[in-house]
Specification:
Blueprint lengths: L20 H22 L4 H4 L3 H6 L6 H22 L11 H11 L2 H13 L5 E8 L2 E8 L10 E7 L6 H4 L3 H8 L5 H13 L3
Antiparallel strand pairs: 1-2, 1-3
Helix pairs in contact: 1-4
Length: 206
């Protein structure tokens, strides 16, 4: 069964002024669609792999035939990363998390402000294209960055939250000012959805 492009859970202008409408239209409708189309193409002769949820496929990336493995990393990773990205944002976002997620962020990173600063540094410090992540690794929250469309799933980590720092995610509005984009991005975060991902990750269902 082929992978499909998920619909945005909100209108393309819903994240204005922090993420502009045209960026959302291009990012979702062209970039994400291309990842979906290309991972499907790569797996045309491997139906047994295409039937797996994308997260499971990436967790088991070493079992993907070598001749299509990099295409699956690039495009399957791009699909999984973006599906998460749209999910954890929304109109009226921002503010602070609450509940167990907030408690564990404060415990792990000393404060919410320190957590935000470390995520920003992971994004600013990623040379070229990639992502900054909050992941669950060995039962602990951890901030990492990854190159290109590499997925934390490939290293046995579960992505809780991630911010796209490819230029196509911000260049129309912010040009080369990646730090400004990262500062504004916090105003789009849907902490309820992030907390749901954290709960699922801790229970092993994500």
């Amino acid at each position: 069964m082929a992978y499909t492009l998920p619909s945005l859970p909100y209108a393309t202008n819903a994240l204005e002024p922090h993420i502009d409408t045209m960026t959302m239209e291009i990012h979702h409708g062209r970039h994400h669609k291309a990842y979906v189309d290309n991972v499907n193409k790569a797996l045309e002769s491997h139906a047994e792999l295409a039937n797996k949820p994308i997260e499971k496929l990436l967790r088991e990336i070493s079992q993907v035939p070598e001749n299509v493995r990099q295409a699956v990393i690039n495009n399957g990773g791009g699909h999984a990363n973006h599906a998460m990205f749209w999910e954890i944002m929304g109109p009226g976002g921002g503010g602070n998390p609450s509940g167990p997620l907030a408690d564990d962020i404060n415990k792990t990173f000393q404060s919410f402000d320190n957590f935000k600063a470390q995520v920003k540094q992971a994004g600013v410090g990623r040379f070229g294209s990639g992502w900054a992540w909050l992941v669950l690794a060995d039962g602990q929250l951890k901030i990492i960055s990854s190159a290109n469309q590499d997925s934390p799933y490939m290293s046995g980590q579960t992505p809780i939250m991630g911010v796209d720092v490819w230029e196509h995610a911000y260049y129309l509005k912010y040009q080369n000012k990646r730090p400004d984009y990262l500062d504004a991005w916090w105003n789009t975060v849907n902490w309820t959805k992030v907390a749901e991902r954290y709960s699922k990750a801790k229970s092993g269902s994500l």
